[in-house]
Amino acid sequence: MKKPKIPFPKSGSSKKQLLDSLEKYRLKDIDWRKGKAFCLVYYPGDERAKLIKSIYDEFYSENALNPSATPTLTRMESEVISMCADLFNGDNNVRGNITSGGTESILLAVKTARDWARKHKPQVKHPEVIIPSSAHPAFIKAFKYFELDFVVVPVKNFRADPKEMEKAVSKNTILLVGSAPSYPHGLIDPIAEIAEIAKKNNLLCHVDSCIGGFILPFVKKLGFPLIDFDFKVEGVTSISADMHKYGYSPKGASIVLYKDSSLRKFQFSVYTKWSGGVYGSPTILGTRPGGCIAGAWAALKGIGEDGYLEMAKETMKSTKQLIEGINEIKDLQLIDNPDMSIVSFQSSTINVYQLADVLNKKGWHFERQQLPPSLHFTINYIHRDVMETFIKELKSAVKEVKRFKLSKLSDKLQIGLVKSAKNILPDGVISKFQQTQSKSSDIHKENTSPMYGMMNVLAGSDDLDDIVLDFMDKINSLE
Predict the structure, then answer these.
(1) Taking the CB of residue 124, how many other CB atoms lie within 10 A of it?
(2) Span 54-300: which CATH code?
(3) Where in the chain are the domains?
(4) What torsion, rounded to 10 degrees, do the Cα atoms 142, 146, 147, 152 define?
(5) What's the rounded Cα separation, in Å, for the pair 137 and 47?
(6) What's this model's pTM, rounded to 2 decimal places?
(7) Most CB contacts within 10 A, which of 133, 198, 391, 414?
(8) Residue 55, SS3?
(9) Cα torsion angle, 331, 337, 338, 341, sign
(10) DSSP-based three-state secondary structure for 249
């Protein structure tokens, strides 16, 4: 039997040894500290980060599993919920919890809706949820976990279409979902119209504001013309918002809020027949890291409205710079005008996945999207001094891609072959072929445009599912 490549250590390593190892490992990490990452990392500046981290460290070992043992954490979480209820135009009846992230917040909102329906809609035997196609895939994860039926409704101009959602309402519907904004394109769904449909049909309405919750209220205070999306809208019954994004708290902190305590009770898990005693848990996690709760509390208290307004102002200034820069490049087209600091663009003349490869090699990191092929940039406070440089390199990269005529043809041929092959080849052949095409997951060293072009063609197919599953399976391999 072949032994694992890294055996369990016989003795501990020194701090220097550990740091030396990390220095080597980090050579492949994105250089977010210089503002070169337009996803994954949100940074409020060194001074604010130092303050938040110091409070996080104070509760590094604490566990909020048992409220009676850690009343300080309970107090901090309660204050965070109260401050967020105020931020999202709720009243003193709003209740909620800090979770480990947006996915857990969404899972809890869906679980709550299911259990609410069991009590208030007992006639529903096969509960279903209606979401727009732009909704975050965490909802699909929730539906699979909780074995709920769901209807995905096409969007109109990249926003949820209330008319189509209303058509989809059936006797089994329990919940409608809208995004503020949708992650792919930074566009706020017509929440008021969706919530009105929900109220009229005695349904719950969840607003997913995981990406925008902690910047949209401040963008609105700065005078940007945004529609209402929170508890100010009659019919909205729950909201999710990530504190570790534009709230700038440490990773592992989101919130889920409910209109009142009677609804939140359906979120809880209670078991009173265990030999270990009565077990009650408010969220999916049992152990709840105290540092994340403390860090979230420190972010809101330490930054305050003035700080968040200042960061929102700088962020929107950088967003405007990027939009203007893109509009100066005739080969690129914005996917609508975003409501906040998420910018996505496509092209009718060049291969945007090739453009992504060129920008990656210049050290920039962002996300590739499909349906349609596009590139996605999330701007935050850390980008306030890099936008001019990025736009210059973006323009240069577009010119470079336009010289790739032979490469463009190659991509088109490969994608064309995929379109033909997927209809005639046996199941699994395409995914096996794809495995032979790239031995490395290092996006900065490979020309990935053919792969992403193929993925766009195969979107939603079993073959693409196989490719992604195989990739995920190999991520933690040391081979």
Answers:
(1) 16
(2) 3.40.640.10
(3) 54-300, 405-474
(4) -30
(5) 35
(6) 0.88
(7) 198
(8) helix
(9) positive
(10) coil
Q: At 479, is the pLDDT very low, low, confident or very high (cuts 50, 70, 90)?
A: low
Query: What beta strand segments (E) does 320-439 contain?
Result: 333-334, 342-346, 367-369, 374-378
Q: Which residue has the higher pLDDT, 471 or 84?
A: 84
Q: CA 74, CA 86: separation in Å to the nearest integer? A: 19
pLDDT digits (tens, 9 = 90+) for 186-239: 999 999 999 999 999 999 999 999 999 999 999 999 999 999 999 999 999 999
Reading the block at residue 125, the tokens are 């035997």
Say whether 369 sits in a helix, a strand or coil.
strand
How many Å apart are CA 428 and CA 112, to the nearest integer? Answer: 38
Q: What is the pLDDT of residue 407?
A: 47
Query: HEC states along 183-242?
Result: CCCCCCCCHHHHHHHHHHCCCEEEEECCCCCCCHHHHHHCCCCCCCCCCCCCCCCEEEEE
pLDDT band at 442 (very low <50, low <70, confident <90, very high): very low
Q: Can you read off the two tokens belonging to residue 210? A: 């995981």
Q: What is the pLDDT of residues 86-136, one digit of tens each?
A: 999 999 999 999 999 999 999 999 999 999 999 999 999 999 999 999 999
- Angstrom distances, CA of residue 366 to CA of 42, 290, 342, 359, 376: 13, 31, 11, 9, 6
pLDDT at position 2? 85
Distance CA(268)–CA(455), nearest Å, equals 39
